[in-house]
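Schema walk-through. Below, the input block comes first and the output block second. Nothing else is stored per chain. Lengths vary across the set, and this one has 461 residues.
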Amino acid sequence: MQGRLVAGGGETAFENVSIDTRTIGPNDLFVAIRGERFDGADFAAPAIEKGAAGVVVPRGWAQEAAQARRAGTAGTAEAVVVEVDDTTVALQLLANAIRKESGTKVVAITGSAGKTTTKEVTSELLATRYRVIRNRGNFNNHIGLPLSLIELRERPEIAVVELGMNHAGEISTLVRVADPDLRVWTNVGEAHLGFFASVDAIADAKAEVMEGATASTVLVANADDERIEARAARFMGRVVRFGVERPADVRASNLRDGGTEGMAATVATPHGQFELTTPLIGRGNLQNVLAATAVAIEFDVPIETIAERAKTLAPAAHRGEVVRLSNGVTVIDDSYNANPTATKRALDVLAQSSSDRKVAVLGEMLELGDRSVALHEEVGRAAARSGVDELVTVGGAPAAAMADAAIAAGLKKTQVRYIATSDEAADAVAATVRRGDVVLVKGSRGVKTDRVVERLKAVRN
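--- output ---
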């Protein structure tokens, strides 16, 4: 950690690493991370009092703690104290050291959409042959990823992690920490466009996933994404491509979209061809499964095993979950997050669904910057083209613009409602749904469209 031991014994062993005193356990090492709203150093002494065997703190903390102790304002038991220049960097260095010592192969996944699903599917396919761990939930940033990599002290054979970002330079940091053997780049879209000058600038930031590669490093890349293809040409290692529209090492053809029933396709690979059937819905998820298939083949998982496991895949929570309610309503719960590309893909799934009536509840898509209104209008027009019977938009002015654009594109005014909050939308939609309806719910997390899903689940009529 490039630190200095200023108290405690160098032979001390720690059970775990924690950054949160609320969950710290006996014999843990507490790393005092400085956040936007708090300074972890303020919690170092309480961490020791709760049983932590050691703390990693900014330089000078031990002297300040000793002065406070003499003044009677703080008390700490004897514990290991390591002082460092930057506690976040120290956590990252520790994670990288454990990653190198573990001998584990690391697969790192980035992209504008589908990272978590690709991570989960990849892990499931690899777990048919290897001991695999994955980062929990969305532990994919400069703090969450190191905490995940510290779990490699258990020495799994493969770790599958996702790398998230909303600013340039962040993927670069994560790649240095994870030092992945195989990198996956799923797609480039408008997510976090408010922090970038253009989608090309987003692609450049995502391209940081290629940094630090050697001749033996593998990049699994989406052949159908022009921005990825343009940048993959400069990758230092070997590129394995997946896709549908263009030639690829792992390529799907003869696509059959079953709406809420899932997807099917014929998949050609370097090891032969197989029929893929998966309950995961939509073409976006098909691309995620193709990416995972390419990774699994790189680790010599037989295509027969891949085909069999794909039949039982399940989506992560709120990411394309199909919920069939007792009142005969089917909900497509895609409420975890949203961007324009992903929302249009979700509308395609709704369009393919076999139902008496199709309802789309679309929340405002956040972090789109100056193009927010225009992109929401584009999605509104896509909703009209998809043939929805009812459209409910939720959020601020961009959501209102989405509703207006849908009407201008052909939906009747009686088919479209704009509602300011998800709580209001939840009550309104619950009051109008009926047996046989399929309801798509999608929106950015900040809009809380998951409340619409929970309200629909509570309907019993």
